[in-house]
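User: Predict the complex.
Assistant: Input components as received:
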Amino acid sequence: MTLQDLIATLSSYWASRGCLIHQPLDLEIGAGTMHPETFLRVLGPSPWRVAYVQPSRRPADGRFGENPNRLFKHHQFQVILKPAPDRSQQLYLESLEACGIDCGAHDVRFEEDNWESPTLGAWGIGWQVMLDGQEITQFTYFQQAGGQVLSPISTEITYGLERIAMQLQRVDNVFDLEWAPGVKYGAVRQQEEVEQSKYVFGQVDQPPGEFATFHRELFDRYHAFATTLLESRLVLPALDYCLKCSHVFNVLDASSGVGVTERTAYILRVRQLAVAIARAYSGVSTEDDADD
Amino acid sequence: MTRGDSGSGGELLIEIGCEEMPAGWLPRLTRDLARHLQQRLTEARVAASAPSACSTARRLVVTAEGVAAGQEDLEELVTGPPVSAGYKPDGTPTKAAAGFARKHGVEVAALVEVDTPKGRYLAHQRHEAGLPTIEVLPAVLAATLRDLTFPKQMQWDAQLDDGKGELPFGRPIRWLVFLLDGRIVPFTIGRTSAAEGADVAVVEASNVTFGHRFLGPGAGEPVTVHSIADHRAALAERYVVLDRAARLEKIRSALVARAEECGGAVDLASPTLAALVEEVPDLVEFPMVVAGGFDEAFLELPGEVLARTMIHHQHFFPVAARQNGLAPSFLAVTNTAPENAERVSRNAERVLAARLRDARFFWEADRKVPLELRFERLATVLFHKRLGSYREKSDRMEELAGWIARDVLGRDDARADARSAARLAKADLATEMVGEFAELQGVMGGIYAREQQLPEPVWQAIYHHYLPVSPEPTAAPAKADLGAGAVTWAAVALADKLDTIVGLFCAGERPTGSRDPFGLRRQAHGVFRILIDLPELTGVTARTSCSELLDAAARPFEAWRTDAQLSEAVVAFMLERLQYVLEQRGHDIRNIRAVTGAAGAAVRPLEARWKLEVLPEFTESSDFKQLAVAFKRVRNIACELSDADHEAAEAAGPDLGTVLTEDAERELVKEIEARQPVIDEVMASSQDFRLGFAEAAKFGPAVDRFFTDVFVMVDDPVVRTARLRLMKRLERLILQLGDISEIVADPEG
C-alpha cells in the first residue's frame, strides 16, 4: 500500500464512521493536536468528529535527510472523536484492518504512554500502540486542553503515517517508501529535509548571532500581535500567531539559541497565550462575562 | 467453605473489564482490590472467605467463596438521655425521653435503662434484620471501586449513583461481570450527561466476559459464564492466562530456552533484567517469547548502549554471549500465538535495527566532540534556578572532590584524578546519547572518557558516580566493579551528592513528608553507604565526620553562612538518614541513638558502624546495664556545669584530689584516671571498640557507689564545682563511645 493509498484508506474509513474530513492547518506546527480542529474543538460540550492529515515539523529531529528514521517533517493522520465512544479502541483496530494489517497475525499492544503538551496546557491518558515492537500510533483520552478540564472527554488518535507505511511496505529507510506507484518518498521530500535541516540548525549565510536575534524578534512580534488579536476577540487568528510563536521557539531551541531557564520562560509564554485563547474560545473568561 | 458444603454455595465473582491498565500498576492494584473488597464486605456484615484477586492488563478479577446468603443482623444499643433527665418528678416522661423514643419509633415504655460510667441512661435496643447479600453487594462494589487508587487517574465520563458523582478510574471500564452464585448482581456504571449519545452507553453488570483481543476463532466475541470455574475455563480456552504467576513462569522458562537456542544465556536475576522480567507478565494475556537477531556489526556499540536500546525502548531481553559480552540476539515477550512468531520476529528485528542505527549515529557523533568541549556547553544546562547551571555545579564538585580525595581519604595521589573526573562527570548531559537515554547518564560519560584514553581512575569515577542509589551493603558498585578508580570514585560520588544535598537545602528545596522531588533522601543514603562501607569499597579507612563534609560542601553557598537554621536543618536531615540506613542494616534503634545521637554533626559514620557491630555483646550484661542507668544520672547532673565553666575550672581550678575527700568520689577519680588512657587509645586508633566498651562497663560499680554516698549539689561552691567537674569528665569520656543512657530507653521512645 502506497503512502497516498494509506491516507485515502484512513480518510475513507473515518468518513464512514462519521468523521468530517478536514484539511491540514496551513501553518508550520509540530503536531496535529495544535490544529484548531483539535485544540479548540475538544473544549466545551459540543460533539465533534473530524479527521485530517497534518504535516508536522519537529526542528530538533531534522537529520539532513541522512537518517532513515528521523525527519524534520513527518505526517500525522489525526482523528478526534468527541465524546469518546465506548468502542474507541475497536474503531481504531478496525481502521488498521482496513489498511490491511491483520491484528491477529501480529503483536498489537497498547502500552502506557500519557501525552502532555506543556506549551498547550494540555494532557491526556493513553497509550502508544505497538505493532510488532514498532510504535505506530499515539492513542489518547484528552483530559485537559488550554488549561481547561474537559467534559466530555475526547478520543485522539494520532497515526504516524510514515511508520505505518514502512511496516506495510517492509522498508527500512523512510526515503525508500513508495509515496505513489513508482514515486519514492525521497524523490518527493529529501531535498526539503536537507534544506530545512540546514535552516533550523542555523546553517545560513549571515553573521553568527543574527540567526538567533532574528528568531527572538520574530517570537516577540508574533507574541505581541497574538495578544493584540486576542484583545480584538479574534480567537482563530490569535491561535495562528500563538502557533507561529511555538514553531519559532522550536527553531530557536533546535539551533541551541536557548538556555534552559530561558527555555522554560518561552514555553510559559506560549502556554499562557494558549490558555487565554482556549478561555476566549469557550467563553469562560471573566472579561467575557462582563461584556455579555 | 466449598460449593459442596452448603446449599447456596456463596460464590462471588467480579471481573472489571478495562482498557489496558499500565503494567506497573497491576501488582499493587490487584492486592488492593482483594483487600478493599474484604473490608467492604466486613463493613456490610457479609461473612465470606478472604477474597482472592488476579489480573491482566485488560481485567481485574476478584473472587470470594463461602459468601453468606444474607447480612448478619444488626444488634445495637443506642444510648439516650440520662434516666435522671428522662422523667419528671411525677414519673411522666420528659420531652427528652419522649423525643428519643419517637426518633427510634418506639414507646417510652419500651426503652431500657443501662448503667454507664457516666451514670444510668435510657437506651434503645435496636434490632435490624440483615438483608439478602445480593441486595447489599451493589453498595459493596461501589465503595470498592471508589477505594481503588491509581498513580494517575482519568475521567472517562462515568459516574455512580452513590451520591459521589463522577467515577474516575485508571483506564475506562468496558464490561463488568458481577455474579453471586451465578446470579447477576444488578449494578450500573452510569455516564455523565456531557457524553450522552449513541456511542456512549452505561456499563451494566452481566455474566458476559471477553477473551484475548485477537487470538482464537471467536476473538472479541462475548462469552457467557456462570461460576468462577466457568470463567477460568472460558478465559483459558480464549488465550487468557489469568494467573500472573503462571504467566511469569511461562515467560521465564521460555526466555531461558530461547536464549540457549540462540547460543547464549539470559541472567534474569541481573539488575538490568530483574525489573523487566517483573513488568512483562503484566503487558500480555498470552505470553509467547520470540527470538530475533541483529547485525553483528552493531556489537561494536558499548554493551550498555545495546542493552538499554533493547530494554528501554523495546522491552526486549538482550542475550549474553557464551564467552563474554552480548550475542547478536534478542528475546521479545509478545502477546500473540506461536504461529505468528516468525512474522513478529522479522518485524521486531527491523524495528530494533532502526533503533540501533540511531544509537550508532549518536555514538559516532558524540565521540567527535571531546568531553572537555561538552563541559563548556553545560553552562546552558540548568541544574537549579537558584544554584545555576551544571557548569557551575561541576566547578563546585571539582573543588570538593579534590579536597575529599586529599583531606578526607588521605590520598593526595588521587587528588588530580578526582578533580578531573568531577569536572567532567556531568559533561555527558550534553551528549546526544544521554539526550536519548537519560538513564545512561554517568555511564556514557565514563565510556566516552575511556574512549578518549583518560586514565582509568578518571573514567571509572565518572562511570559510577551516580551510584550507589540505595544503602544496602550489596548495592552497586562493588570494589571489583570500580577497578583502579575506587578512591577517585568515592571522592566524586560524595562530592556530587553532598553538593546536591547542601545546595538544594540552601535553595529552599528541603524534603517534607512524602515530598522529596529531588530525591535528597536517596542522595543521603548514597553518601552513608559510601562512608560506612568505605574500607570494603575503596580499601581506605577514613573516619570523617558529617560536619567536616557538610562544611566543606557548603563553602560556595552564601546562605549557609548567613542562615544558622539552614545548617541545623541539614544536620538533622543527615542524622535522620544515617539512623535510617543503620536501622536498615538491622541494628537496634537504641544502640543507633547511643552511637549517633550525642555526637550530632560530629558523628563519624564509619565509627558508628564499628561501634554498632560490637555493642550488642555488651548491652545485655548487668554491669553495662548498671552503667547505662547511672550514666543517665551522670548526664542529668553534668549539665548543671556549662561547658565553658567546666573548661575554665579544669584549666585554672584546684586539683580534684585536693577538694574531694569522700572515699566514693576519690575512687571514681582514680577509676577515670585508670580507664581514660585505654578509652582514649581506642578512640585514637578506632581499632577495638570492644575493648572500649568493656572498659566503660567497669565504671558501673564505682558510679553506683558515688551516687549512693555522695551528694553533688552541696552548698559549698568549691566542692560542688569539683563534683560537677568529676561528672563532666566522666560524661565526656563515655560519650566518646556513645550515649550509653539511650540503651535503657524503651525502643519505641
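The longest strand of chain A covers residues 134-145.
Let me know if you want any component modeled separately.
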